[in-house]
Amino acid sequence: MDERVIGRSHQRASVVGLGTWQLGADWGDVDDKEALAVLEAAAESGVTFFDTADVYGDGRSEQTIAGFLRGRPDLHVLVATKMGRRVDQIPENYVLDNFRLWNDRSRRNLGVDRLDLVQLHCPPTPVYSSDEVFDALDTLVEEERIAAYGVSVETCAEALTAIARPGVASVQIILNPFRMKPLREVLPAAREAGVGIIARVPLASGLLSGKYTKDTVFAADDHRTFNRHGEAFDQGETFSGVDYTTGVEAAAQFAALVPEGYTPAQLALRWIVEQPGVTTVIPGARNAEQARANAAAGKLPELPAETLTAIRELYDRRIKDQVENRW
Fold first, then answer.
1. Where would a tag sit more exposed on the chain, N or C end, judged by fewer CB atoms within 10 A?
2. SS3 for 228?
3. What are the distances in angstroms from CA 80 to CA 12, 91, 150, 274?
4. What pLDDT is recorded for position 23?
């Protein structure tokens, strides 16, 4: 699979990576055997970038990745983790002492002395404007606790503030055919600054897979049940902030645009890969079959121009007014 440079870090990532939130929590149960099978399938399919966080299953996701990589010393996989969601979400908690504590915990979980890439995990908006925060992140690099740092954001405005910081290597942002505003506001600025873009929630929490109907019932411990209106965290993390009924209807229309040889999910992933400025896209997978199918999107032919136009028209017609004023 093709690889691209992650901005200023000079690290490389496969164009399709693997998101591992689901290996920790909030997507229903995934047992350890299945989690390891997902990692194995992704790696064998050419994925060289795993994205995790210290709060995914309270460290379970990080530990699972570490266990897998210990058993596969032949692999060269860059592991990006995140920090900042283990405490109350107030700017005062984003200080060097806490960074070191969180960093120590992730290094233990992942079994490494230095983390490849650490991202602030959707912190409060004022954090992005704090010189002290980014001085502290620079200190972690100087202390060789981390090789590089980035941010994971909720809004385009937060992304633009972060991109202006000279030490930021990457910005992780929700980007998919139901969330196009970053194409206009963020990706051009990132390209100009030399900042990598990690596209997350690429399937709009599964909507773009075309598998769900208005009658689909998700598990009680799945965020698609308990966070539809932002009850637990930012609403944009669930179905990209799109009303579920609207999303299901629009997803059916999206599925009708799929070219021969693609699945709806692969169409969504391929669309993201082809956006100028995107470094990698990080779909999750609940089983090995999904992991292999997602990775295959990185090797599919370029999409026809008429398909790209139809996707944009669908977004403008059904989705744009729901999401652009918030994120």
1. N
2. coil
3. 12, 23, 9, 22
4. 85
